[in-house]
Amino acid sequence: MASQQSHATDFTIASYRSILRRARDSYRFAGYRNIPYGTRFVLWRHDLDMSINRALRLAIIEHEEGVKATYFVNLHSDYYNPLETDQSKMVMEIASLGHEIGIHFDPRYYEVLHGSSGNEELDQHVAMEAQICEYFFGCRMTAVSFHNPSRFIADLGDEVIGGLVNCYSDRIRSNVSYVSDSNGYWRFRRLPSVVDAAKESCLQVLTHPVWWQESPVQPWERIIRSVNGRRQATLNAYEAALERDCRLNVGKPADSFPPGE
After folding, report:
1. Strands 141-146 and 160-161
2. Rounded to whole angstroms, what are the CA distances from 133 to 99, 105, 108?
3. For residue 259, what is the DSSP state?
4. What single DSSP character describes residue 137?
5. Which of 91, 102, 163, 170 has its Cα between 20 and 30 A from that of 130?
6. Residue pLDDT, tens place only, 169-194
7. Pairing mode, if any, of strands 141-146 and 164-166?
8. Rounded distance, CA 140 to CA 84, Å?
9. What's the CATH number of domain 8-211, 3.40.50.450, 3.40.50.150, 1.10.10.10, 3.20.20.370?
């Protein structure tokens, strides 16, 4: 059974920078476009489940440390809209820092729960989302990761889906060790320990930027911060539109909502 130890102190910006530096000492950071099989490398990946804002924060740190990662954008996230002006600009800024952008694909949106070799429907949906992102973000999509894939992961063995490298392909899963911070804790192995040991010749590291904060915070509170930030941004946009058009903000209470991130 997976450990439920959160190791909250691991999930800070300072810790993140330290982990990056230790990983950089032992591995070459590679992208999915040209995976250097047969060499010592790490595929450093971010699934953007909840926050593009936090993703940009990590992207800047990685750029400062001279490493590149791949950021997977979900067009159907419940927590952000990547096509909003500000959010879209953040994705483009991430790409401008030299990072790759991929599709964080949610099959449930299309009621596609099972992929298989030659599954044309899945290929078409992935390819379509890649085209949308390439049009709006102005950069080429390189890979696809699947949102909550556990129920159909066994059927996703193809190396390429919809023209994109599949993070869950049989080849990657068979040849590349995996570490993940899903749900805000180390479900299987603790990343700092894996990086320090550096026993595997190649790794695929999955992080979710929302978990990494300036100071130790439990996962539930991180989600609250993200939701509050989204709420505050929406309210700010509404109020800015009223002010821009010289309109009254009727019914606004004296106190406002606490800021998020």
Report:
1. unpaired
2. 15, 12, 19
3. P
4. H
5. 170
6. 999 999 999 999 988 899 889 999 99
7. parallel
8. 19
9. 3.20.20.370
Residue whose C-alpha is closest to residue 206's, from 256, 158, 157, 172: 172
Residue 2 tokens, joined:
């997976």
Amino acid at 9: T
Q: Whole-prediction pTM value?
A: 0.89
**Residue 151 burial (10 A CB sphere; 0-12, 13-18, 19+):** exposed
Residue extents of the structural domains in the chain: 8-211, 218-261
Question: Can you tell me whether residue 165 is helix, strand or coil?
Answer: strand
63-81, pLDDT tens digit by residue? 999 999 999 999 999 999 9
Locus of tokens 């599709």 = 103
β-strand partners of 178: 204
CB atoms within 10 A of CB 90: 22
Taking the C-alpha atoms of residue 38 and residue 144, their distance in angstroms, rounded to an integer, is: 22
| Dihedrals phi, psi of 121, to nearest 5 degrees | -65, -45
